[in-house]
Design a protein that fits this description.
This protein is of the alpha+beta class. Helix content is about 30%, strand content about 35%. It is globular. About 30% of the residues are buried.
């Protein structure tokens, strides 16, 4: 079993246990769980970090990891057929004009949450891309995207004001997307998000976290999109 498969298996099994526990229940210590699942501390930490990112657990420094209160969160899995269908392509195929304002584009350390989603070490470098997306000139959403720097170094300097990020990955790196794991939730706008979307801090918005994988099941990108209240509606077409 590969490292990625172990991490996914541990995460899914932990989740099946967590949903049966009362909020505030403390998770067993890492050494106990490592022995129980027969995995390394790094693999277990990735699994736990993924559940923290999804809102099922919270880690408190010096106290441990605890089950959180249930939240409105819905998972979707989108599978691509022959063509990459990112936001840019979807909108332009409908006849709309999509542009972006790049607010931040830099190389940073992955950190625990991003590393868990991209199956990296927290000390690995990722490209952080923060963009405001506009449709026909109207503000639509704010998206932060993280990509493994070692795999996609050109994304540090590529101009993403126009065009599709996924199309660039396909043309530059021959990446074929296999699936997109989506987590939809309601979130409160922090000061940075509120300022970018012209909202009041704390105002509720629709948040979509997504991890995109290639056909080899390797994580390609992890992103968090915050939608303005007037655009807080998503359509998912599910096909067997």
């Amino acid at each position: 079993m590969s490292g990625t498969s172990k991490y996914v298996a541990v995460r899914e099994h932990l989740l099946s246990r967590i949903v049966k526990l009362a909020p505030g229940t403390r998770l067993a210590p890492e050494p106990v769980l490592c022995e129980e699942y027969g995995v390394s501390r790094i693999t277990l930490r990735h699994a736990v970090d993924g559940l923290i990112a999804d809102g099922h657990l919270v880690r408190e420094q010096g106290r441990g990891t605890f089950v959180t209160e249930p939240q409105f969160r819905t998972h979707y899995r989108e599978r691509f057929a022959d063509d990459v269908k990112g936001f840019y392509v979807q909108q332009t195929e409908e006849g709309f004009t999509v542009t972006s304002q790049v607010l931040r584009q830099r190389v940073v350390l992955a950190g625990e949450t991003v590393a868990a989603q991209l199956d990296l070490s927290s000390a690995d470098q990722v490209v952080e891309l923060l963009r405001l997306r506009f449709v026909n000139g109207s503000l639509h959403h704010l998206v932060t995207t993280f990509l493994p720097f070692d795999r996609f170094p050109a994304t540090e300097t590529r101009d993403f004001t126009d065009g599709s990020l996924f199309e660039f990955l396909r043309s530059e790196y021959q990446v074929a997307l296999g699936r997109n794991d989506l987590l939809v939730s309601i979130a409160a706008a922090d000061s940075v998000t509120a300022d970018a979307l012209m909202l009041d801090p704390g105002e509720k918005l629709l948040r979509v976290a997504s991890t995109v994988f290639d056909h080899d099941d390797r994580a390609v990108a992890y992103g968090i999109s915050d939608f303005t209240p007037q655009n807080s509606e998503l359509f998912f077409g599910l096909h067997s």
